[in-house]
## 1
Amino acid sequence: MTEPEVLDGLTRILRDLLQDESITLTAATERPDVPGWDSFAYVNFIVAVESEFGVRFQLSDVEAFQNVGEIARQILALKR
Amino acid sequence: MKWLPEAGPDFREHLAAALQAASDGERLNRLSQLARTQLSHLQIIQLDSALSKIVTSEGFERVKLALLGSATMDHLAPALRIAGLRWGVRFEVYVAPYGQYRQELHHPDGALSRFAPDNIVLQLSAKELVGAIPLASSKIVADDAVATVCRDVSGLWGLVRERFGATVIQQSVLDLNASLFGNHDAIVEGAPRRLVSRVNAALQDACAEAGVLWLDIERAAAQDGLDRWFDPLRWLQAKMEISPNAAARFGELVARLVAAQRGKSKKCLVLDLDNTLWGGVIGDDGVDGIKLGEGSGVGEAHLALQRYAKKLSERGVLLAVCSKNDAAIAEAAFRHHPEMALARDDFAAFYANWDDKASNLQAIARDLNIGLDSLVFVDDNPAERARVRGALPTVAVPELPADPAHYVRTLSDGGYFESIALTQEDIDRSSHYAANRARQAVLTASNDMDAFLQQLDMTVAFGPVTPLTLTRVVQLINKTNQFNTNTARRTETEIEALAADPRALTLQLRLRDKFGDNGIVSALTLVPAQGEPEVLEIANWVMSCRVFGRNLEHETLNILVEAALAHGARRLRGAYIPTPKNGVIRDLFSTLGFELAGAHADASIWELALADYTPRQTFIKREGTAHDRT
């Protein structure tokens, strides 16, 4: 799996979660950039990402992610 | 939620299609169908946002429900609304801010008052309720602390009743405490685990009187594993005591309670026959070819489903048959197969024919004067299930797994017959409840052995070994170690040959009592002694330990003597060969009046002259059933 593929997957999940097909995530996207991606939606997003990608983040991961790129890279690291 | 079929890979397309339906009502029905599949947390959120756009609640009962608790509960609301769709309820959900439930309950015109809930779910944490009770508490201190907690919570229930007139759903307190003493946590008075379990017990006691419904999360967590319900990461990240991955289960459990309160639980269990109530196809395999009952694991699995259905009927659930079969053959199976736990008369409707199952289900609903949404249809055939789901979407159709070992658990997990009370009407629908009470009475008054045996109302059905009883008899002979006079094992072919041999005598006995059928519990085979045609030798005599102490061996001998006389014999001969396990019948033959006639190696040989025999008094009456005798 490549980083662009992971980004596509993350985009799909956030579109489904927020019911907004206009969302496109890039490595640089941060939460405030996406309308509606509040802390509650972030928890749901993490839960969905873990289940869709079959990974399990650590508490320090979910508290430290600064942008979508860091999430994608952590997924790739966990999948390796 | 394995009782629901999988959503499949096309969920997003199905959801989009549902939203394209012509009317609001049709859209709501299409979303309800999607709600009857296994959904991920994300899919539930998607379905819930689609639902939020639908104004109508036509065909659904509107219920306002508030979630109040010590932890974050917002993530439970979507799953609750979706679970409601499965139960004919459209929930409007209010979630109180995290940890603010006391303020909300006390505030005379706050947000909760304006919401005017019908139901309030109260989720209180172990930490909050028992966290401050000292570990070193004596029994007296712990008793007092538990009573105080219970009074405090009952006080909250009182507030709900007075201020909102709402029905409280009290969630059992989850024991999330780390182990301090290990197993001893359950014993130490001040140990959090013991305190939580006592608080739960005290709250359960208080519930009934206060008209509060009990939400048994503890049980669900025990079944699914606590890790599925509580995720320390989500607690630390978002103060969720219930993991988002358990939200669907939580919503379902709450929805069932609300549905039960509003009379929306299912009323009738409709059962297929072939490969559902028994293994195999009755029309092809015949009544002695189907797999049912003791003797094979598969047979026992199907029997377990029958017994479960029987129990459900005893608490008031109606039973019906919907099967593609010849009616006469299907009905005969219930009359003639000795292992049937269900009788033909247990069914309020019996549709065995070659018509479409959906039409039969409609006929059953009509006959019983109940709605299609009151039916649960259990069928092993995926094609039949799909057909019924498509034609009659309100009929609940559990997704039976391929392996009958899991049938009972699947039906049980579906929670279709949720009940908030056992009513007089439920009880009157069955006679077994009375038997249970009688059993209590017998058990408490059982210090007089004869009185106990007399009150058991035992009956024995007996006859030679037949094709229908062969498997069980062989199993009994080969598995019994205690009541086994010579521990001689036999193959099915050997017993079959003995049963067919006019010189030999075979006997199998089935014991019933007022509490039910114990099945075939004893068997004997006898052959004429070499060169002594007037002597019958006991080649096997076994009895299940399940019926020790009932004096069945005495009644067995009464029966055996009559049979032997009719057979033309004058003496019975038996050998006791001791083993490490059959010491319990060391004195069997002498107790029964046999005389020692010799010994070789460690075996003792015993004889009984039939002409001298006086029948023994027992409390077992004889019955003759066609299938056991023929």
## 2
Amino acid sequence: MNPFYRIFGGLLLVLIDIHLGQIEVLADFIGYLMVLSALNGMDGNLKGMKGARSTALIISVLAIPLAFIGQPTGTTMGVSISTDLITIYHQFTSVVHLVLSYFLFYVLMDWSRNEGNEDIRKKTRKLFRVYLATHIVYFALLPFSINIPENVTIPLFIVGLAALLILEISFLVLLRTYHKEHQNRVHM
Amino acid sequence: MKGKTFIISLLIITISWGGNLWFYQSKQLEEPIFLEHYYGGAGVFELYYLTNRDESSHVMSVEFSDGTTLHAKSDYYGFHNGNPAYGPDVQSRSTHYLLKKTGFDEQQMRELEVDHEGEATIHFNDGKTMTADIGTVESSELREGNGIFRSQGTSSSSNGRSFRTYTVKEDLKIDSMSSPFPEVQDDLKMKLYAPSIDLTGTPDAGGPRSYSKELDEEWSQVAGAPLENIDFPIDMKQGDRIRLTMQEKPDSIRAYSYEIEFTGTSENGTPFTQPFLVSNHPQFTPEQMELLIERRGSQ
């Protein structure tokens, strides 16, 4: 299995949440470990690789408890976000996830440059900008939801979550493209 | 995006979290704030109080200043274990607060002859206890009808308007009016209509259709004269209608349920007393909640 496919699989595992009671069946930390092992199998000199590896390691450890503490109260009791420690821990993990994505984008762009594939590099660059900008705006605005009325936050929440989901899927699709490029190269 | 920009972005996210959590924390109440209640033993007895939005406890019992203790009706908490903001006792909610209500049994209150003023000791179901000024709570005997006034209808609307209408069965004279809580009248505009009063208007025929119309009308168009301008005695003929219309002011943050009494004599000389129930069921806007905290918080 080539490294891009493993990154793809790992991030897909993180995206999909299946809970049996408190326990998450497809635990996020397993997904992050897959990403970490994929990165370890790649060229260490790629730009962003060092950051990506260390972030993947940190989040793999950080995400272990997530599999056992269940969903934060904010998602099980309506849309409004609460201020307990579990919610803050969840949000912190999401931000670390963003850092991981940031480095992964760098790795991808450097890899495609080395391959001399300008098309896919440009595509990656475009998604990188939108992905990052949207996430930063979302994460910066999210905490305001504890202090402003529900009828304002709920529609914003829905729009924001939809945008994030679309971007997350676009990222996965992009990784699949890399996987195919990689395969083509091997077969050539 | 360069590394520096990214780090600054992460910093902004952290500041946003810190700032919002700090603001949220600064809005939290140390303990619930009770409304000022004016209960004269008529109608229901319900305690209203403001809590933090994530507060799931509710009132179990109240010790009054005369030493009596009443337990709250608890029948509707049985199956609720979800978000406190959507509990059965929540009357209004804002981003940070909940206005909650606890009901008590009026029959039991009458048996105990509760007579309370000022500080009460309140026990919550999570074991906490606090003292708070809850206002005045009195019980009274159930009143027997006088057979002279026949209720024509009562109506109330969410804009704080309500009225009570009676027709009289014989000729009579109303000599005076008294209220156990004249201070509540600061929160409440009242107009009394009777055919012999100098009035600003006449209510329609009194059928059900007129109710909703009068509930929405401008206060100046409401039939009758302001209660404080009325000259007693009021003469009434058999079949005349008398209507008391009440309008709560927007900054009213008290809970009340009591009777204004009109006393007089009937045609054949028998004295009578006719009560008019004055009561509200507070529902607060976020602004009224802030007003309550300003007026009654950390006393």
